């Protein structure tokens, strides 16, 4: 098999048309011909399967090292289809700082369907083990949490999960298979908001699930086809294209982020930096062991008394917006924007203060990004 960076560019050739097209065509077809009534056709109806979507699904399955991939119309649709493999009365342990939309799906949707959840700090393996109940079926977490970049060991959780016959489900949005392949570290299912790094250009909302085994793949496929939140052929082609440049984009995200972290460390206005690439923390040790890089998101706290709103609003190049993982740099205040659904008490309990800023570092020239941050800080 070819090297990972080559696999990003070349998925499995479909050889399904005689035009010689280098890329898989966008099959804008909702239905497909049966040569005869009794024909066993590979494609019959596009919710059940579409060749363009299938190319993307095979591409991500290979990159993550799983049996089968599935593409959805959003990251949350992917998470919904994953958690919907469980049944009423099942219990799932979730990371206590998972993406807010995942919490909303759990608290305001799946609990009504009688799935039970316990939220724990998944960096603390003992806390995870202590939360296991007779009806526990899975542990679900993000390896790098948002916005404080606390790192969970996939190996540690997968070991506990295996001992208790639980599934390990990892949201790999922040790292992508370029930086971490959870299935190779013991996880069973990986989910993505492909809206972020996989797409990479802030122009598509999409989700991905990859299952390690065919048995799990069959359960996810049932939900993909049965619930039906599939990714369109057009959007599938856009995510496929995004994936082709994943390595080059992430290399630049990583080097830009390292330079910005150095810059922030040199500034008196900064109280604290949250980035797993800074040595001396448990996060650094786990990330060093289990990832190929520390990611393109950095959060930092401004010193007390400095106006965080004024800072983010004063930037010229770095845009004030939620989301992350795209070519352009985006900045936001978690307490007001991405994590506004939490009460102030809940925010403070997980370390989200009014001084906290989250920066998704893009692939611009790092000198311009640092100049922009410097002029913003100079205004405080
Ligand atoms: C870690 C993580 N998982 C899942 C999602 C949900 O994905 P989507 O917005 O594509 O539905 C997000 C969105 O921000 C996210 O950051």
From TrEMBL:
Keyword annotations of the record: Pyridoxal phosphate
Keyword Transmembrane found: no
InterPro entries attached to this UniProt entry: Cys/Met-Metab_PyrdxlP-dep_enz, Cys_met_metab_PP, PyrdxlP-dep_Trfase, PyrdxlP-dep_Trfase_major, PyrdxlP-dep_Trfase_small
Cofactor(s) needed by this chain: pyridoxal 5'-phosphate
GO molecular function: carbon-sulfur lyase activity; pyridoxal phosphate binding
Domain of life: Bacteria
Residues spanning the signal sequence: none
GO cellular component, one term: cytoplasm
Gene Ontology annotations of biological process type: transsulfuration
Modified residues (N6-(pyridoxal phosphate)lysine): 196
Family: Belongs to the trans-sulfuration enzymes family.
UniProt protein name: Cystathionine gamma-synthase
